[in-house]
Structures are given as structure tokens and as C-alpha cells.
Amino acid sequence: MKLWLLKRHDEDDFDWDEAVKFVIYAESEERARALAQAEGGGETGWRHDKPFWTDASLTTCTLLPETAESEGVVVRDFHAG
């Protein structure tokens, strides 16, 4: 598995109960984005009318120089009120 860093373009402009960043092990960028979308908060529902973490115009997804044998979320930076 590859290690991916996902970040919001608007990481300084968020409401409570939203994820800001993820570090995820996944085989592909598409799968990393899907895992982030599944683990997100308000940014994946009420605040946006379309998928958030799968949209490259709203988020970045960068391959990091590490690998693993199984997929999963490593870190979720989440702000709750």
C-alpha cells in the first residue's frame, strides 16, 4: 500500500465537526480519496452539495514516500465543537 496525504484547500476556513487532513494507506489516489470521503465529517454532507474529498478542486492528495501491506486511515485531523 502507498501512503497518501490529503488536505483541504480551505484548511483555515472550516466549521466544527469537519475533517481538515488525512494520512491514509491505500493502493491508489482514487481509493485514498474514497476512504477519506467515508471518514469525513460535516464537510462530506451538510456543507457541500457534492462529494468533498474525492473532488480535486477542493482537496489535494499527495503520495508520500512510505508503503504498507494493508489499506486504512492513519491520521484524521478533525475539529469538533
Structural overview:
This protein is mainly beta. The protein contains 1 helix and 4 strands. The protein has a 4-stranded antiparallel beta sheet, covered by helices on one side. The longest helix is centred in the middle third of the chain and has 11 residues. The radius of gyration is 12 Å and the shape is globular. The mean pLDDT is 86.
Give the topology, please.
Elements: E1 2-8, E2 18-26, H1 29-39, E3 59-67, E4 72-79
A few lines on this structure:
The chain is mainly beta and 81 residues long. It has one helix and four strands; from the N terminus they run E-E-H-E-E. The protein has one domain.
Main-sheet strand order equals 3-1-2-4
Main sheet: strands, sense, barrel: 4 strands, antiparallel
By DSSP, the count of extended strands is: 4
Determine Rg (CA atoms, Å). Answer: 12 Å
Query: What number of domains?
Result: 1
Strand portion? 35-45%
Mean pLDDT figure: 86
Number of alpha- plus pi-helical segments: 1
- Anisotropy-based shape: globular
N-to-C span: 33 Å
Query: Which structural class do you get from the secondary structure elements?
Result: mainly beta
Low-confidence stretches: none
SSE string, helices as H and strands as E:
EEHEE
Helix content range of the residues, please?
A: 10-25%
